[in-house]
Amino acid sequence: MSQQQSDAERHERRMTRKKQVVDERIAAASEERGVLILMKGNGKGKSSSGFGTMTRALGHGMRCAVIQFIKGRRETGEYRFFREHERVDFHVMGHGFSWETRDLEQDRAAAKQAWQLAEQLLKDESYNFLLFDELSYMIKYGHLEAERVAHAIAERPHHQNVIVTGRTMARELQVIADTISVINDERHAFRLGVKAQAGIEY
Ligand code: ATP
Ligand code: MG
């Protein structure tokens, strides 16, 4: 047998075994329900993953909503793009928290108001996908109670999917999450001196 043939056979055996394992896992994962996904860590890719997943839901005709809990410094590309979409309700938290405001009372009131809206969405079965972008900071800075947030998310409609982004995540959210991904900061162009740019950073 030539080297090429034996390589091909070995490859085929490996792939057959692999397929068997994958098929068994697929058969075992038979539950159908919405999931809570947490995107955390210091690297770039958390919010963009949330919006990327939302495009999948939209592609399947699903109804979606976004709440951005940190006020942007300028209009983001995602806001400009998705606010036009008939099946996306896009909310950017009013006034409130950004790195530039320092009014604790105002920040807290804005966070509470945005969370009230989130609780309404979490009771509305017509939404299949909710993105709570940068929600974790509201908990970290004490504007929202982790337990209240976790409770509302845990009680949501059975089929509803939720993604929460933010660098750090409260333990209460991690306990009820189905998927947790950590985006590591191995390198970032900003530290190489590259200016934040439209279409990449915002
Ligand atoms: P993105 O929105 O690009 O997916 P992100 O949601 O993971 O990023 P955030 O922590 O929300 O990251 O930061 C928001 C902004 O800061 C984005 O413009 C992002 O490109 C930038 N950024 C993210 N991580 C880093 C980093 N490690 N160093 C510098 N800038 C970063
Ligand atoms: Mg983000």
Automatic annotation (TrEMBL):
Its main location: cytoplasm. GO terms for molecular function: ATP binding; corrinoid adenosyltransferase activity. It comes from the Bacteria. It catalyses: 2 cob(II)alamin + reduced [electron-transfer flavoprotein] + 2 ATP = 2 adenosylcob(III)alamin + 2 triphosphate + oxidized [electron-transfer flavoprotein] + 3 H(+); 2 cob(II)yrinate a,c diamide + reduced [electron-transfer flavoprotein] + 2 ATP = 2 adenosylcob(III)yrinate a,c-diamide + 2 triphosphate + oxidized [electron-transfer flavoprotein] + 3 H(+). Pathway: Cofactor biosynthesis; adenosylcobalamin biosynthesis; adenosylcobalamin from cob(II)yrinate a,c-diamide: step 2/7. GO terms for cellular component: cytoplasm. Belongs to the Cob(I)alamin adenosyltransferase family. Required for both de novo synthesis of the corrin ring for the assimilation of exogenous corrinoids. Participates in the adenosylation of a variety of incomplete and complete corrinoids. This is Corrinoid adenosyltransferase. The lineage of its organism: Bacteria, Pseudomonadati, Pseudomonadota, Gammaproteobacteria, Oceanospirillales. The gene is cobO.
